[in-house]
Amino acid sequence: MGETMYEFVEKFPEMENRIRGISARSYMNSLSEYSKCIAFNGSHNMEHAKVDEICKKAIPYFSDVLYSTHNNLFKEAYFKYFFYWVYYERSDYKKIRNVINDFYKLLLDIYKHQLPDLNHNNNGTFINVELEELNNIYSVYKCYNNIEFMDGTNRDGVFCKAVLDIPKKYKTQIFTEIKENSTSQIVSYCPNNIAFPIIITILLVFTISFIAFIMYKFTPYRSMFSNGINNIRKKRNNIENEWNVFQLSEISNNVLSDSRYNVLYNSE
């Protein structure tokens, strides 16, 4: 249903008129299909009179689409509206509502060869959520339609605006809740984002140290590591020796400077 659900609703008034216009004996023109439909009574232990009544409406209604020159969207709308009609327009069909999908699949199966252009796989299930969506949309559609054609004064414009504001209100509320949830998730993720690189760094240091230890202890590269370490130590010692010599030189220079200063001072 999905992408074209809203287009179906626009065609529902026409289908409503068609189903109301079906005469009591119209099903006689399609007795083969009617026999398959009425078999639903035996397989689901339904009340015979109710199933018979529905089938006498369903078969002429669906047979009508066989001779329709409309596109597939219009033909699918036939199927959708009928089950909306059973579910919402006929409160006396309570029992069949519980097995609405089974009845829907039965009618799809009856007409699958006669209506090969329809995507019967996608239409195999009619869940309650879809029916509820269609009911809500069609209720608003009928409200606007009745107000628009009641007269030319549009005296119920205030009422129409109130109806229009309802979905806007809930749309804003839903958007706000989604935004707040998203912000909350971003804040909760911040500590994880900070901790993650620290953990990775610690693991890398530990891994490198462990690999170096293994290579030093248990591989032929031990001597190479030892030589490398000794070279580093020698360089460090040389640097320290040079630094010590430099420090001694500095001290000697300072001592000589002080001595000269003292001699000059005493001579005066």
TrEMBL record:
Domain of life: Eukaryota
TM ranges: 194-216
Pfam family, one: Plasmodium_Vir
Record has Membrane as a keyword: yes
Keyword entries, A-Z: Membrane, Transmembrane, Transmembrane helix
Name of the featured protein: Variable surface protein
Organism: Plasmodium gonderi
